Amino acid sequence: MEYVSTRGGTRAVDFEGALFSGYAPDGGLFMPQHIPSLDRDTLQRWSSLSYPELVKELCSLFVPATLVPRNMLNELVDRAFSRFRHKNVVHLSRLKDGLNVLELWHGVTYAFKDLSLSCTGQFLQYFLEKKQKHVNILVGTSGDTGSSAIESVRGQKNMDIFVLLPKGLCTQTQELQMTTVIEDNVHVFAAHGNSDEIDEPIKELFADVDFAGKYNLMSLNSVNWSRIMVQIAHYFYAYFQCAPSLNTSLLPMVEIVVPTGGGGNITAGCIAQKMGLPIRLVTVVNSNDIIHRTVQNGDFSLAESVKATLASAMDIQEPYNVERILWLLSGSDSHLIKTLMEQFNISKRLKLPEDLHRKLSGTLGSCSASDQDIVGAMRRCWEENQYLLCPHSAVAAHYHYSQPHSIPRCCLAPASAAKFQDALLRAGLVPQIPPEITALTAMETRSTSLERGQDWAQVLRGQIEAVTQHWEEQAGQSAPQGRGGSLGR
After folding, report:
1. 135, 155, 188, 213: which has the fewest C-beta neighbours closer than 10 Å?
2. Are 377 and 225 in contact (CB under 8 A)?
3. Would you say residue 477 has pLDDT above 60?
4. Is 49 exposed, middle or buried (0-12, 13-18, 19+ CB in 10 A)?
């Protein structure tokens, strides 16, 4: 299994190479050269597996045993999920009116990103320990990615993580989950800008190929293929939980509704569909509706500004994983994708070719929800079920309540309501706060402020250079840093 750039300008790499990369050197995103196709017998066999077992089976298709032996892969996944609070790791709540909510938030930070990032952290540690190397991880976060990424690598000697958060645009809980982690390898930056603006210095550093290679930069945003790969399991588990029976002549369809920000999770759904899973996908967004406009009208164009919404982790204008979806639907046409994305990068406006738009709208349904819609879905779910939804999950529930369905439907729930107290209060609901979250407000915090007018990329460069020099001094002559090359082969 090799991985290629969506833009076709980079040599193929193996899983290790994709794992330790951010954007591909040509600006594209890594994708498997071939998507495995699963037959009915495999689906039947997998239908009784637990969520962790599904993750192991799926990862083994994309990570050759020559790189990570299967018994070690199994051990890494088990380690990754050892801190999850629910015995099944994820849980399906079956509520009134056919509302099935797949709770993906039982990890340390109460967010779905714990699932993929805990596994990715284990994969990284496996390769780093083997090679005695050091990496610098760059993460831009609109809410949950930062804290999940921090938890996946905190305290590790051969990984330093640099997290940029948009000051005042995350919830207090989300911000505290990042700034209260006082570890030598954790560096949090509170930037006075929005989610898209904090991505710019990160892109700039990755685009400096010499710097990125010299300091072994990598990303844990959903730019990273490993996160997409693990998230494919959500769809198989949701399908097997919600499908009435697999003993029919035609396998039953299940509709899966996916709250969408950067588009990593819905990309995983498109790959699951491509692998042969009989699912209908619906991407649901808040008022930042570029994906909805792209699906409905082929209009992949920025709005004038990012709108602050109750579903703050989805307040994203440039959902970079759309590039992966378009590559998949174009039949891996990297020349077309390169042309389209270069056009978008220049003008921030793109009208999809008619054929590609037809394939996209045939693959995905879409819906956008206002803050009023979100509040309405949160209230209705509580009134009917005494069940609290986070505002992101409520975007999916709004679709469910407003669209009749004839087949089983599953709504993915990316975060616990406990992380969004202000949204609950606005809906007239009483937050139920776990003690781990309550304790955050009394803890010491640490972060570096990035002001408007500062050269954020230059600030990051200086910190990365200093941290790497310190690691080299600590490592000593017995394990010198391999400079000038990537960790992947």
Report:
1. 155
2. no
3. no
4. middle
- 87 is written with which tokens? 């015995």
Distance (Å, rounded) from C-alpha 409 to C-alpha 256?
A: 6
**Looking at residue 271, what is its pLDDT?**
98
Residue 144 predicted with pLDDT over 80: no
Residue 484: pLDDT over 70: no
Strand order in the sheet with 448-450: 217-219, 135-140, 159-166, 186-191, 448-450
Count of other CB atoms within 10 angstroms of residue 433: 15
Q: What average pLDDT is seen over the chain?
A: 92
* Amino acid 475: pLDDT: 76
pLDDT of 476 > 80? The answer is no
Residue 417 Cα distances to 91, 141, 378, 413, 432, angstroms: 15, 19, 10, 10, 8
Q: Distance of CA 287 to CAs 42, 292, 318, 370, Å?
A: 40, 10, 13, 6
Angstrom distance (rounded) from CA 259 to CA 284: 5
What is the number of alpha carbons within 13 Å of residue 379 lying toward its C-beta?
Answer: 10
